[in-house]
Design a protein that fits this description.
Blueprint lengths: L1 H4 L3 E4 L2 E4 L10 H47 L3 H4 L2 H27 L3 H23 L4 H18 L4 H5 L8 E2 L4 E4 L9 E5 L9 E5 L6 E2 L1 E5 L2 H6 L4 E4 L10 E9 L2 E6 L4 E6 L5 E5 L23 E5 L2 E7 L6 E8 L4 E11 L5 E5 L2 E9 L2 E9 L4 E3 L4 E4 L7 E5 L4 E6 L2 E8 L1
Antiparallel strand pairs: 1-2, 3-25, 4-25, 5-6, 6-8, 7-10, 8-9, 10-11, 11-12, 12-13, 14-15, 15-16, 16-17, 18-19, 19-20, 20-21, 20-22, 23-24, 24-25
Helix pairs in contact: 4-5, 4-6, 5-6
Amino acid sequence: VLSKLLVPGQQKTDSCLCKINSSIWTFPAVQFMEVTRQVQICEDNLNEFEEKVRNTNAELPMMEATLQNISASLKTFGYLHTSGLYSALHLRQLNQELEDIHQSVNETHMQNPNKETHNLLSELNKAKNDVQRMYKDDFFNLETMKKRLHDLNNRAQSCKTIPNDFRSTCHQRIMTRISSPSITKLNSISKSYISGAWGRDAQLSSKKHYWEHCLVSGHKHGNTIRMYNSYEDFMANRNYKDEQIASSYSDKNAVQGSGTILYDNTVFYQCYSTAEICSFNITTKVTKRMKLDGAGIDNKFPFCYYSCRDWTDIDLEADQDAVWVIYATEENHGNIVVSRLDPLALNITHTWKTQLFKRSVTSTFMMCGVLYATRFVNTYQEEVFYAFDTTTGQEINTLSLPFEKVSAGIANLNYNPVDGKLYLYNDAYLLAYDTFF
């Protein structure tokens, strides 16, 4: 029997002794415990799922009742669609926008008649006839008409009177190259202050004042600007004066966001927690305010290409004899709006609407009446990829002007017409570049 089972053994006296290894029949305790654990997990998941199903079944009648209430509420407005009034409301809005643009162009034409204003008036009259035809034929192509109005509005803004010396200083419209950094240093306060702005006074006849503004309250608010009388003092962090813009970080005139600029010894910035522009004259200590209608604030439309930089909804820039404000509105679908400000009266003189989504941009700056936008390439490189020329109302999407940086985040980028440099607040670092046309 043993030989048939192939179990070796030996005979001792009257007995047959065999060695058998029984480990192969050991009960798999470890595997059993794992299976038990998996069964328990499965049971727990099933219980959780059953609980969710019970809760959902209980909530379904409530959800159904809510939907019925909403449907009942909307039913009263059904006549807007069935009687064509909904479309008529859109046409009335288009007609009003056309009238506003026509009035603006007509005023410009009366002051300074030229070929462009004459052509614009002809195109506006044709657009008005097309809208009247929509009323008559009940045929609508609202998106096409809105784009048409968008282009007509930008051309109308570009036709408005802009000082001749402004355009004459910009014989070449579009920038072609940006140098390596000619200045690189940390801000003078702390490496932890990663948000702010810096540069020099952008007014052409101003003294050689360099300035530095750090947001020191949650990278959101500030109330002082540091002033230097010379480049040497700025580089050595000496002989500076901290000018107080507001009494505290939470004062109504405090600075919100990093979109600050200095023009003609006056600080222009977003007022604390409002869609308003403030100007603070360092000499007279007088603060003016202006409402920026429709502007998104409190991180509604921040610069956001790679990672959102908080509190960048409103960006102030200075160029030649004007101050510019870059922002976004719901009415323009979150796309960038550019407004030209009179720095003394602090009112808007021109407004252009671009088709560039503000959250797709890292930063913007103005140069010779042209808006430039940048995007993130990597931690150490940025690229100017877009331009909008306010003189022609044309958008350029084919730019590729790379420039270096020392860190990923950009808080502020501004151009200075006095020395032709770009000034970058790159996290806590201050960089400057030469520009070329």
